[in-house]
Design a protein that fits this description.
This protein is an alpha/beta fold. The chain is about 30% helix and about 20% strand. The protein contains 8 helices and 12 strands. Strands 5-6-8-7-9-12 form a 6-stranded mixed sheet, sandwiched between helices. A two-stranded antiparallel sheet has the order 1-2. It has a two-stranded antiparallel sheet with strand order 3-4. A hairpin with a 5-residue loop joins β5 and β6. α3 crosses α8 and α6 packs across α8. The structure holds zinc ion (ZN). The site of zinc ion has 5 residues, from loops.
């Protein structure tokens, strides 16, 4: 991922940091969401129960392929797995392939995986994450590891694991709206700290999709991007650009987290701006999209100290954190 940006300009390693201000068929996040009909009867919304064991297995399965770096056999195999699993869960799946240029002019074969439920429904919500893993552990304490690819368990696989479990629930209990789940490729091939060329190179897959959507003039009511949502005790702050472009969506999601009892994960404070896939979605498609992304004010990167290191492995995957995120998102879309 990502890059933070300016204000009290403090520059981090390979990102600029912007410190601007500085159920259910079981679980019910206090099911107080109600719909008033003209006759004043109250309809109870049933939100499926997010299963964190399932999300964990989806995450571990991705990591077991090896680093999902474009142009590698592991990447290709994992992409086929993700698309196949989404089809098995009942989605209509488009595999959008493209040849993209990295910051250092390498051609990579990228694939955005687009899974749609209730295709005819014009009332749509977009959920997304990136499925590739970073080719460089350039934040690793050991310089000998800087050119090695990372597992990307938290940075990539975990968010896709959460979305696959959400897809499983949607396949079993259809919501009243249409849902598109997009797993973007080539998010994390941004220029490493050891090879600065002045071209950042992040978010290539989402940029391509936003400029060439799978449906002509594609739009959605709003979008929710998940990135780095599985680490133990992760906390999510209200990201600056999300607050700028989609404050109502931030409000909706943070209120849902509170109703579901996850305010210890979704913090009622703002963080700096982060360059991530949501900006491409807003820029090219004008869809208000937020980024639920881990923020840690106690590290120099703003992310966990395992970020872009070889330590971003399965030890950075917590069922509790994935439950908090997955249940909150399910609550939002089933109360739409
Ligand atoms: Zn990353």
């Amino acid at each position: 991922m990502i890059i933070f940006v300016p204000l009290f300009f403090y520059s981090m390693s390979n990102k600029l940091f912007f410190l601007i201000s500085i159920a259910l068929i079981g679980f019910s996040c206090k099911q107080n969401a109600q719909t008033n009909t003209p006759s004043k009867t109250v309809e109870k919304v049933v939100v499926p129960e997010f299963n964190p064991d399932s999300a964990y297995v989806y995450t571990a399965t991705q990591v077991a392929f090896g680093s999902r770096v474009p142009n590698t056999p592991a990447h290709k195999a994992c992409g086929n797995y993700l698309a196949g699993e989404l089809r098995r869960l009942g989605a209509g799946v488009i595999e959008q392939e493209a040849t993209l240029q990295t910051y250092d002019n390498q051609s990579i074969q990228a694939k955005n995986i687009i899974a749609s439920f209730n295709r005819e429904n014009k009332n749509r919500v977009l959920l997304c994450a990136h499925w590739d893993s970073r080719p460089y552990a350039d934040n690793d304490a050991n310089p000998e590891n800087h050119r090695k690819p990372i597992d990307g368990a938290n940075d990539g696989a975990g968010a896709c694991g959460v979305l696959l479990e959400i897809a499983r629930q949607i396949g079993e209990h259809s919501p009243n709206i249409g849902i598109d789940i997009i797993l973007f490729d080539a998010e994390d091939w941004g220029e490493p700290q050891f090879d600065r060329r002045g071209r950042d190179g992040w978010c290539l897959g989402s940029e391509y999709w936003a400029q060439h959507p799978h449906v002509l003039n594609y739009t959605a009511n709003y979008g929710i991007l998940l990135d780095m949502v599985s680490a133990p005790n992760a906390q999510f702050y209200k990201e600056y650009f999300s607050m700028q472009y989609a404050p109502n969506v931030v409000k909706k999601v943070w209120e849902a987290a509170q109703v579901c009892g996850f305010s210890n994960y979704f913090i009622n404070r703002q963080s700096g701006g982060i360059e991530d896939d949501h900006l491409q979605i807003f820029k090219h498609r004008k869809i208000p999209c937020i980024d639920i992304i881990q923020y840690d004010p106690n590290t120099s990167s703003g992310f966990g100290d395992y970020w872009h290191t070889l330590n971003d492995n399965m030890d950075r995957v917590s069922k509790e954190t994935m439950k908090a995120v997955g249940q909150t998102v399910l609550y939002v879309i089933y109360n739409q």
